[in-house]
Every structure is written in structure tokens, then in C-alpha cells.
Amino acid sequence: MNTYDSVKSTSVSEQNKFLAKVYGWMTFALLLSALTAYGTAVYAANNIQTFAAFFRGGFFVAAIAELVIVFYLSARINKISAAKATTAFIIYSILNGFNLSTIFFAYNIASIANIFAISAGMFLCMAIYGSKTKSDLMSYRKFFSMAILGILIATLVNFLLWSSGMSLVISIAAVVLFTGLTAYDAQKMLIISRQARDDEMFKKASIIGALELYLDFINIFLHLLRIFGNRK
Fold it and tell me: With CB atoms counted within 10 Å of each terminal CB, which end of the chain scores lower, N or C?
């Protein structure tokens, strides 16, 4: 083996290691959220009075805490340690699982399981597409940013002026948006992985990448559930 082959092998090894960290952390966070959601739902079902007295307010506090963590990671990622970033991501996935527990009261568990599987299939297909396509998905960055802002504004307006028809339109648009974002984020992680090293900066990059892909999956799942889920 010549020197070039050795360097190339090391580069591919570091690239695969980085991608394994990204998707590994994402999978771990999803499992943690799922276990937290199910455990919270079971506890709440067996402790109705406690649920009524505490959990409803707790959901609001958890939602605020989630936003704080996302903004904290986005703003401080260059200054905090990889350990702190990892801890924040784990806390975020637990808090999000706590809030996701409400779906067990609104939808049949079989419907939740089926749509989770469909979401996983869609996510996997788009992640593979984003990693394999020769198209430059990074050129769509501004489009995705504006689309996310549009979804957020429409959601806020619909929260104030509630319309079931508008809610359906928002969910359909969100599924399309976050399906596209999955491919975009997968390609972005692939590009980053080509410069990956086993150092503090790339450990933090793997956490941010895992968070972005985690959010893509969760949004696909929740909006598909709102469109096709069988309510109790």
C-alpha cells in the first residue's frame, strides 16, 4: 500500500466515523424520546389527578425549555464543550419525549406505530437520496429558510384563528418541506464529513447534525400523524 492509499483510507475512515456519530446520536435521541413519551403516557394514565395538576403546566415549561436549548446550541456551539453540547441534546430529546406523550391520548397506538414506520421509511429514502445525488442541494438553503419561516408564521396565525382546513394545508406543506430538508441535511452532513477529524469541533458538529436530522424526522412524523392518524 502506497502513501496515497494510506491517506485515502484514513480519510474515508474519518468520514464514516463522523457520519456514524451523526446518525447514531440521532437514533439514540429518537429512542430516548420514544421511551420518555411512552413512559410519561403510562404514568399519566395511571395518575390522572397528578396529570391534571402538574403535567399540563409541565408541557408548556418543557416546550419553552426546548426552544431555549435549541437557541443555546445554535448560539454557543463554538464556545461550549462537546460534552455540554451532548448533554444539552440528551436533555432536549427527553423534554421533547415528555411533550410527545400527548399523542398517546389523541391517537390509537396502532396508528402511531404505523405512521412512525412510514416516517422512518420516508426519512431513510430521502437521507440516502441526499447522500447519493449529484445535485447541489445546498443551493436551496434560502428556499428552505423562507419555507420554514412561512410554516411558523402560518402555524401561529392558525393557532390564533383556528381552522381545521388551514391546519391540514400546513401539515401537508410541512411534510413536503421536512422531507426535502432531510435530503438537504443529509447532503450537508456528507459534505462536512469530508473534512472530518477526531477532534472537539467535529464532535460538536456531529451533535448539531444529529439534532437537525432528529427535528426533520420528528416533524415528518407529527405532521403525517395529523393528516392520517386515527384519533381516539
Answer: N
